Predict the 3D structure of the following.
Amino acid sequence: GKIIGIGLVALTQFFLWIAFVLIVYNVGIASSSSGMVSQMVGTMQKIFSSVNMPLILFCFGFYFLAGFFFYASLYGAIGSAVNEDMREAQSLSFPITMLVIISIAMMSSAIADPTGPVAVWGSIIPISSPIVMMARIPFGAPGTVPWWQLGLSMGLLILSFMFTVWFAGKIYRTGILMYGKKPTWKEMIKWAFRKN
């Protein structure tokens, strides 16, 4: 419940930003009397007309929510396993943070070469797909990003976040009762796959 609530709050914030951009864009069109405003509106019109905005907005919503659920459930598992020691939480969350940093580095490569192997595999593997795929989609779908890659990426991400939510729930059930014991990733994986 907490994961869904926080995700919807963040998504509402992004929708407000999108609405603000559209309002500024429409106001700029209506009052494009000055040269600079007219030039900015013309540039925005070229950008909006050259990309498939409905697809980009749909994919943004999907990858934002699916990526959020994926990573939030992993961080939730860590939060349920640690006590009040911040150093414990930091040491356990470091590998997940590194995955996000590696995904951002892969995104830079995907922008430079959207059809290269790093971009293709980074946009399919669920750990990096929420970040890398959104860097590839503006280059064109189905041109640069074939439909099968987009569908495979979405399907694997859905399966992955369902698994991580299940994984986090199993860790939460055991970890919330452990007090005073310093957990490790190895122990948390044992908690997840223990039969109760």
Summary: The two ends are 23 Å apart (CA to CA). The chain is about 80% helix and 0% strand. The mean pLDDT is 76. The helical segments are 2-30, 35-50, 53-81, 86-112, 117-124, 129-136, 147-175, 185-193.
